[in-house]
Predict the 3D structure of the following.
Amino acid sequence: MKSEWMDRRLRLNASAYFMKYDNKQEELSEQAPVGTGQQTVVLNASSAEITGLEIELLTTPFDGFTLSASLGLLDSEYKDFADPIDGRDLTFLKLRRAPDMTATIAPTYEWDMLGGQMWVTASWHYIDELELTFYNTPQSQNPEQNIFDASLNYQFNNTTVSAYGMNLSDEDSWSVANFDVRLVFTLKYWSWSTCVNSCDSVTFNATVTSVPRMETRSVSGS
């Protein structure tokens, strides 16, 4: 659904979807049977279902001010998934990188200043807790995150100066799970994982960007 309101000052879009997988393949890295290396194993899940809803809002209630927002809701689960090694029921596992809810709010205000244009932007991004490894190892579970960013920008002719802060809420969470290892002890399976690339701490930076003007010439023939 797409709609516009208030003389095009308000835009509201919404979409719903349903996906069903049969014999969904899942890749995981595990300890090699010989030596200390790793190997990639592909498992065939019997089926999985994903249902989602996405809502997007964009509004300009008054000149110079813009507010964008989005909301995503997700329900994902395995169906009739058995471990191909020992037949254990694995339908209790959560799909990787499939948070139940995500949301974003980003206001922007801009105004004319000193012959150029100034604008300030802030954003809040919420990500629900999610799993990073196939076996949902506790060490690699990403807790819910509230991430705040902000920037101050000025543009004059073809030059833009920006100062910004990222992750102002100083969230600390893993972004990548390196491998999900399954160790065998008396026919029982235990899993653990090593995660790398944690989210950066609070970051402040400034940039200056200048784009040269391109001259165009017309050529006419007699």
